[in-house]
Automatic annotation (TrEMBL):
Keyword list, A-Z: Oxidoreductase
Source organism, top-level taxon: Bacteria
InterPro entries reported in the protein's UniProt record: Acyl-CoA_DH_C (IPR013107), Acyl-CoA_Oxase/DH_mid-dom_sf (IPR046373), AcylCo_DH-like_C (IPR036250), AcylCoA_DH/ox_N (IPR013786), AcylCoA_DH/ox_N_sf (IPR037069), AcylCoA_DH/oxidase_NM_dom_sf (IPR009100)
Keyword Oxidoreductase tagged: yes
Pfam families: Acyl-CoA_dh_2, Acyl-CoA_dh_N
Protein name, UniProt field: Acyl-CoA dehydrogenase family protein
Species name: Amphritea atlantica
Domain Acyl-CoA dehydrogenase C-terminal: 240-371
Lineage: Bacteria, Pseudomonadati, Pseudomonadota, Gammaproteobacteria, Oceanospirillales
Domain Acyl-CoA dehydrogenase/oxidase N-terminal residue range list: 26-89
Presence of the UniProt keyword Oxidoreductase in the record: yes
Length: 399
């Protein structure tokens, strides 16, 4: 597609498209969970709305927008169906990663169809061996969300020794014809994401289809357009966090709808909306959700101030963004859990969408991007002047 023919929507227009879908997505959420994957018509609706083009390079029909546009879209979609929003997050972030690679990759991927989608599995489950001209991948890669819709293949993570013998964590673009999908996705939450296993049998990946995974590395961030000067982890982690924020906002939506008509049978206050504990927990939950949303959007906007001017984001901003985004899952699960407890017995029935919403938030908060337990030390140490550990995900070398 020639980029002169692209009609790029405004931020307000594309976010409004997501908001309009919330009731429709909520109606489909139970069926999505039972099917253990997002249906094709939903993915097509997301394609038609332009959600997968937000971070796609303009060279191949994309919009190259501020990553907060995608974050705001994800927040809205997750209020309706967390699993569907999770697919938009995964499949919508990878066009950004293509923008970091040699332009040959984009030509190969989108030369005939600029709507082709890419899934991923970054955890280095399989093995990687460096050979002349590239790498050999072999083994199994788990939890590739939305892989059934990814005609463009997948980004797979793996550890491999560099020329000096040091281990690198790299991402490899593998074409769809080079792997099989095994349906092993039987889980307690986010079941509708279709995050199945990918099977790779001695596949050669040329070197130009790979990059070091991290915020920055010399081979990717020295030549790219302004959007792709954003830190990789900053974009990825904020997108995951945004879906979880949307899930928590959806939980608050459901709670309000549940409580407004409810009458307390065992308390003298009568209407649930007059119960001080029901009101108090909702207010406290909303404060946690609002704080998480403000933090993630602020982090992205601060980094964007640099990237949108063609500058690389300073290390201290990257470290702070990387670390503080990881507290989103814990904050949002706490918020959702505290109001779920106030639904008492009524919330536990499988017919109640609130129990599904809580389970989805639980699984989302378990994602590696939400590892709040040991990330505070990294941020606090950097603020106190400690050197960053080696190796680190920021591309910062020891002095």
């Amino acid at each position: 597609m020639n980029n002169m023919t692209i009609q790029i929507p405004t931020e307000e227009e594309i976010v409004a498209r997501a908001t309009k879908m919330i009731p429709w997505l909520r109606e489909k959420a139970d069926a999505v969970e039972k099917a253990r994957m997002v249906p094709e018509d939903t993915i097509q609706a997301f394609q038609d709305a332009g959600f997968f083009r937000i971070l796609q390079p303009k060279r191949w029909g994309g919009y190259e927008m501020n990553p907060n546009v995608l974050n705001k879209v994800l927040i809205e979609l997750a209020r309706g169906c967390p699993s569907s929003a999770w697919n938009v997050m995964v499949l919508g972030v990878h066009p950004f990663e293509v923008g970091l690679l040699d332009e040959v990759v984009g030509d190969e991927l989108w030369g005939e169809d600029d709507s082709a989608l890419i899934s991923s599995s970054y955890a280095p489950f399989g093995t990687v061996k460096a050979v002349e001209g590239g790498y050999i991948l072999n083994g199994e890669w788990l939890t590739s969300s939305g892989c059934d819709h990814a005609a463009g293949g997948a980004f797979l993570g793996g550890r491999v020794a560099d020329a000096e013998g040091n281990m690198e964590f790299r991402s490899f673009w593998v074409q769809r014809s080079d792997f099989e999908i095994e349906d092993d996705w039987h889980v307690v939450g986010l079941a509708g994401t279709g995050s199945k296993k990918l099977l790779i049998n001695e596949v050669f990946v040329p070197a130009y289809r790979s990059h070091v995974i991290g915020d920055y590395c010399d081979e990717t961030h020295g030549h790219v357009n302004d959007l792709y000067k954003m830190p990789f982890f900053g974009v990825f982690y904020s997108a995951v966090s945004s879906v979880i924020i949307g899930m928590a906002k959806g939980m608050a939506d459901l709670y309000i709808e549940h409580m407004v008509p409810r009458q307390n049978l065992n308390q003298a206050v009568g209407a649930a909306v007059n119960d001080p504990f029901i009101k108090g927990k909702l207010g406290e939950a909303q404060a946690k959700i609002t704080g998480a949303e403000a933090r993630v959007l602020m982090n992205t906007e601060e980094a964007w101030k640099y990237a949108s001017k063609g500058e690389l984001v300073p290390t201290d901003v990257r470290v702070r963004t990387f670390a503080t985004n990881q507290f989103t899952g814990g904050d949002c699960f706490d918020a959702a859990h505290m109001i779920f407890k106030k639904t008492s017995t009524r919330g536990v029935w499988l017919s109640s969408p609130m129990q599904r919403q809580l389970r989805d938030i639980l699984v989302g908060a378990n994602h590696i991007t939400q590892n709040q337990d040991n990330i505070g030390e990294l941020l606090g140490g950097q603020m106190l002047g400690n050197p960053l550990p080696q190796p680190n995900p920021f591309g910062v070398k020891a002095q």
